[in-house]
Amino acid sequence: MSVIYILIILSVVVAGTFLGLFIWANKSGQYDDTTTPSMRMLFDDKKPDAEK
Questions:
Q1: CA geometry: angle at 20 spanning 14 and 22, to 5°?
Q2: Does 6 score more than 90 pLDDT?
Q3: Secondary element (H or E) of residue 52
Q4: Which residues contact 30 (CB under 8 A, 6 or more apart)?
Q5: Is the pLDDT of residue 51 over 70?
Q6: Element (H, E) at 2
Q7: Positive or negative torsion for Cα 27, 29, 30, 31
Q8: From CA 26, how far away is CA 13, in angstroms rounded?
C-alpha cells in the first residue's frame, strides 16, 4: 500500500515538472512564429470573385 503513495507523489512531481517546463517555454518565446510574417508578402492575395 505504501508503494501507491510513492507513485502518486512521483506522478505529481513529474506532472508539475512538465507543467513548469511548458510555462517556461511559452514565456521564453519558444512557440513564437517568426518566419511566417516575413514570408507573407511573397504570397499572392486571393483574387476577388466576380460579382454575380
A1: 105
A2: yes
A3: none
A4: none
A5: no
A6: helix 2-27
A7: positive
A8: 20
15: helix, strand or coil: helix
Cell of 2: 505504501
Contact (Cβ atoms closer than 8 angstroms) between residue 17 and residue 23: no
Contacts of 31 (CB under 8 A, 6+ apart): 25
Under a CB-based contact definition with an 8 Å cutoff, are residues 31 and 25 in contact? yes
User: How many Cα atoms within 13 Å fall on the side-chain side of residue 45?
Assistant: 4
pLDDT of residue 52: 56
